[in-house]
Write a structure and sequence with these properties.
The chain has one domain. Helix content is about 15%, strand content about 35%. With about 110 residues, it is an alpha+beta fold. A three-stranded antiparallel beta sheet has the order 1-2-3. The chain contains one helix and three strands; from the N terminus they run βββα. The longest helix has 19 residues.
């Protein structure tokens, strides 16, 4: 939720915001490996400059009394693996436990 000044408002106490967010990265195309500049070879000469890439992820923000106290960003791949899914589930679980004011507990099978 946002206010007129672009800040975040929400309920009192601890709360968590989960949303989709695109991160933008700018790199010098001379330092960029071929996979981030499709169609260009690493040694190809020609015009140089900056490349801009954007990729989606989930941002989990933790607020305490309206103040941002933590932020985690988890990238979303085009073809997420089971490991990617497990990381996201773990981060969401930790955020919900934090919001509830309970310390994280070990899940069965963890050591």
């Amino acid at each position: 939720m946002g206010d007129a000044d672009g800040g975040t408002t929400g309920p009192a106490g601890r709360w968590v915001s989960v949303r989709l967010q695109h991160r933008h990265v700018r790199v010098d195309d001379q330092e960029c490996p071929p996979e981030c500049a499709p169609g260009r070879d690493a040694g190809e000469s020609g015009e140089t400059g900056e490349l801009s890439m954007s990729y989606p992820g989930i941002v989990i923000c933790s607020y305490d009394e309206g103040r941002l106290v933590g932020e985690r960003w988890i990238p979303l791949g085009a073809e997420p693996s089971e490991e990617d899914d497990e990381v996201l589930i773990e981060q969401l679980r930790a955020a919900m436990l934090w919001q509830a004011g309970r310390p994280p507990q070990e899940t069965p099978g963890e050591s």
